[in-house]
Design goal:
Residues 1-151 form the Integrase catalytic domain. The chain contains 7 helices and 5 strands. The two termini are 32 Å apart. Strand 2 and strand 3 form a beta hairpin. The strands form 2 sheets. It has a 3-stranded antiparallel beta sheet with strand order 1-2-3, sandwiched between helices. The chain has one domain (2-153, 168-197): Ribonuclease H-like superfamily/Ribonuclease H (Nucleotidyltransferase, domain 5, 2-Layer Sandwich), CATH 3.30.420. The chain is mostly helical and 224 residues long. The longest helix is centred in the last third of the chain and has 31 residues, at 169-199.
Length: 224
């Protein structure tokens, strides 16, 4: 879980997004929040939007945001039986999954802000829908399908599951918005892959080569 902040403030005062991702299915929830919320409000949202739908997680990975490292948040999850793990400067990859989604989400939000101006918040559910119904290479299916065991029924995928129905103008507009969002997502993912590939360097070692060993600041004994 993490936050996307610094977004244009809308009429209802929302100016940030709290997103929570399931490590197994890659499914995600994007929640509208205000940076002025107190921890009680975050706890209320967490129970309402996550626990209500999916139960209590066995563990959560997040960065060291003060909201996540507070005594209140730790006590809440200790009572729920959830283990909290924090990414650190020595091991930022621990929350790499969230960082990738942040990059995708920020690109999508920029598109929404440009296209929908002051009503970008009303399109956030469509962004979440588009993300959860887009193919993820790591699980070889869409998060929705991994979560529920079936393809999602929607006007966009009606041909894929053997259905076709007449739709009204409101549904058609929503479908077109989802298509634009998904196209933007594909472009974003392709750009990120190209950037990563251009900076990747294959390393080849042979017996007898001298290498540097990085020793991280970690507790306990490590055996190789």
């Amino acid at each position: 879980m993490d936050f996307v902040v610094g977004l244009p403030r809308i009429v209802h005062g929302f100016n940030a997004i709290w997103f929570i991702i399931d490590r197994l299915t890659k499914s995600a929830h994007f929640l509208l929040v205000k940076t002025t919320y107190d921890l009680n409000k975050y706890a209320e949202l967490y129970v309402k939007e996550i626990v209500r739908l999916h139960g209590i997680p066995s563990s959560i990975v997040s960065d060291r945001d003060p909201r996540f490292t507070s005594r209140f948040w730790k006590s809440l999850h200790k009572a729920l039986g959830t283990k909290l793990t924090f990414s650190t400067a020595f091991h930022p990859q621990a929350d790499g999954q969230s960082e990738r989604v942040i990059q995708i989400l920020e690109d999508l939000l920029r598109m929404c802000v440009l296209d929908f101006a002051d009503s970008w918040d009303s399109k956030l559910p469509l962004v979440e829908f588009a993300y959860n119904n887009s193919y993820q290479a790591s699980i070889e299916m869409a998060p929705y399908e991994a979560l529920y065991g079936r393809k999602c029924r929607s006007p966009i995928h009606s041909d894929d599951i053997g259905e076709r129905t007449e739709i009204g103008p409101d549904i058609e507009q929503a479908s077109e918005a989802i298509k634009r969002i998904r196209d933007r997502m594909k472009t974003t993912q392709s750009r990120q892959k190209s950037y990563a590939d251009s900076h990747r360097r294959d390393l080849n070692f042979e017996i007898g080569d001298h290498v540097f060993l990085k020793v991280a600041s970690m507790k306990g004994v490590m055996r190789f």
